[in-house]
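Can anyone check this?
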Amino acid sequence: MGRVIEVTDVILRDAHQSLMATRMALEDMIPACEYLDRAGYWSLECWGGATFDACIRFLNEDPWERLRTFKKLLPNTRTQMLLRGQNLLGYRHYEDTVVSRFVEKAAENGMDVFRVFDALNDVRNLETALKAVKRTGKHAQGTICYTISPVHTIDRFVEMAQKLVEMGVDSICIKDMAALLKPQPAYDLVKGIKEKCGKDVLVHVHVHATTGVTMVSLMKAIEAGADIVDTSISSLSLGPGHNPTESLVEMLEGTGYETRLDLEQIYKARDHFAAIRPRYREFLTEFTGVETEIFKSQIPGGMLSNMESQLKQQGQGERIREVLEEVPRVRKAAGYPPLVTPSSQIVGTQAVFNVMMGPYKVMTGEFCDLMLGYYGQTDGEKDPEIVALAREFAKKDPITCRPADLLKPEWDELRKAALALEGNNGTDEDVLTYAMFPQIAPKFFKERPQGPKNLGKDPVAPKVPVDPSHPGYLSAPIEYEVTLNGKKTKVTVAPA
């Protein structure tokens, strides 16, 4: 018998988040659970990421109820979620007691494995969430967001892995959302982590399929000692999604490596999702091929479409080439943040403003915060001149402390506001739902008794753009506050 490679399937979360804008209803996942639970997976990713947002924004479905249902239907398999560190599942930093409470409640409702990441790879933004997971006795997975830049070296990523191990994580995840992890760096990175952190440290590799090279990267990672890899059942795979589970199983034949997976069960699940998929055609991404340009420009496709739409709204659609050249300059000035939510939007929008109005004549509040350290620390040095400008625009000083250290306790305030809403059921879970999405929760609480909506049955549902740079990011309009000629003004950026 060869060395066993464990597999996490993302079919219940990231697969439909990446390919159909997170719109799959729970009732369309339930029938496949018995097959998935018998298939022999290490875990099934089924919660977190954008699912929480999609559940209450579009599906009128309680995300906590979704989690409890999965726990009941998957008695033999670990449940797994994606958590944005100090941002939890929202888009701002939360104070520590809120982060701890969220983790406790997720564990209580059935979550087993917490994959915790930070968009800037600032480990200080992972600490509270990881400690909370350890307190619950669940599996704490520390995550490295993989990206490419002059400052991002294999040694630097290995150093981050060492810090995560020191923080007591149960495993390390290499998370490659934009499919930038080529085969040789995959081998070198896994090997480096195993050599520096110890052979016993579990290494879990997550890649998307967008650039067409990452199935080979998985093979090289396995050869270097990776213990677990992420895949998705073939009927919801490829494009900006993931590599097919069945292909991984077949690829390993005769290599000295094998999985514990039962393909017969997987085929049953595959057929179920193949039958469900056409009902969601209104939400399916049009991007189904391969996009190797990402390696050159480092601008993932969804970020590109968002910038194009911003320019068109200003009647300057023809200037996209200038913006494409500006993005790497802005990213460099900001210290080379990985281009994932929310940094991809912040950098992209600033590049658009630079082209339309002149370099840094206008700065969004978010870009100022990124420059001044309010999202955390970047791996590269920031341009001191742009930092000084951001300080002037934002009328606040840069910080070097962990951003959440500046937040005041907010649980009591959030609880009071949530309990005052019609339809709130008084639970901590409802308070947390309100904390994540204060704009959407009031409507959701009120309409929750009407029961979940299945958008897959609606043949005239609106087309929703999907962002391959951070698959499934819900492209709602975003309001920025900008300063132009000394005056503050609000600018709304709508999706394409």
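Reply from J.R.: I decoded it. The two ends are 51 Å apart (CA to CA).
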